[in-house]
Amino acid sequence: MAEQNIDYHLREAISHLETALNQSVRTVLENEGAKKEIGGKWETFLGEFISMVREKGKKSRINILGWITFPRIR
Asked: How far apart, in whole angstroms, are the C-alpha atoms of residue 13 and residue 41?
């Protein structure tokens, strides 16, 4: 049950990220001047995500990033 829940949330997250990415690209194509603002939004998001993973790892004493084999990611 838990694995299905995790899969569901990860699929939803990917769907939302794809939408945000598409909107980001469309916005910058329509207005080159928006690049800095859009980039800042992505920097904030990625920074919050990495901080969340690190904080959760510290609290649980689990190396969450250690679960991922980065060379396999393409």
From this structure: 16
